Amino acid sequence: MQNVKLSNGVEMPIEGFGVFQVPELSECEKAVSEALNVGYRLIDTAAAYFNEEAVGKAVSKSGIKREDLFITTKLWIQDAGYDKAKQAFQVSLDKLGLDYLDLYLIHQPFSDYYGSWRAIEELYEQGKIRAIGVCNFYPDRLADLCLNAKIKPMVNQIEIHPFFQQQKAIEVMKEFGVQPEAWGPFAEGKFGIFQNETLNEIAKKYGKTAAQVILRWNVQRNVIVIPKTVKKERMEQNFDIWDFELSNEDMQKISTLDLGKSNIIDHFTAETAKFLNGYKIHD
To answer: Over 90: is that where the pLDDT of 1 sits?
Structure first.
């Protein structure tokens, strides 16, 4: 497993395991336990995924040293603001059964995320979080936060996959020393990504699957990936990407698949802002 070094010197695995859309607690606990057995050490959850308790149970039962794990969770919009963010952080920490977090992210660039960020900066300075960052902050929002915050985000988790490659966003992150992390590295399995002719031709060349090629493509761009699956054989396949390297020619072929936009969610519409602000995770 390779690590990336964040701007504050903390090392973070470049491949982890995501649990988005695994809300059933027993299924999530089993999946995380199996992922840890396969070798994953970065686990990515969120308050809005409703499975922090399951992640915590799997971690507790794993027997793996805490310092060998890298646990991420996220602050939802409903809990934005200085005071509410601090309360929500503690709720997440308690659900996970942990004394500290490795990475805490603002989940969406809506509501009072500046108030949230001030709270998160303080929690970081108090040693309760090893690294802090954001999700879904596109170049304008990310640059604005970096230019005005006391502490710049260390990670920005955004949608990145062959059909939405986000090169401009990655360039802005590099300018501000922010590490890119990909959610939905398989485009959530949509748009025929696993049947794509270009990806499968490249995969055949290396004796790999299209999924393995997609993950390898991202890590070669220095992008952290957090693929999600509840099938152990897929976990093992997704983890088996360290014995080959894509050529520059093949990296270029994959670059031609970029559509330049998301077909999953558009963060620039009023409808998205209304929907996400209206999504409640507690009373």
So the answer is: no
Q: Are strands 17-18 and 224-225 parallel, antiparallel or unpaired?
A: unpaired
- 218 φ/ψ angles, rounded to the nearest 5 degrees: -70, -45
Domain 3-278 has CATH 3.40.50.1000: no
Answer yes or no: are the C-beta atoms of 107 and 144 closer than 8 Å: no
**pLDDT attached to residue 269:** 97
What pLDDT is attached to residue 129? 98
Is the pLDDT reported for residue 23 higher than 80? no
Largest CA distance in the chain: 54
Residue 69: phi, psi to the nearest 5?
A: -105, 155
Write down the domain spans for the chain: 3-278
Residues with catalytic function: 49
DSSP letters along 56-101, please?
HHHHHHH---GGG-EEEEEE-GGG-SHHHHHHHHHHHHHHHT-S-E
β-bridge pairing 179-183 and 3-5:
unpaired
Report the half-sphere exposure of 173 (CA within 13 A, side-chain side): 27
CA distance 42 to 6: 14
Dist. CA 103–CA 211, nearest whole Å: 26
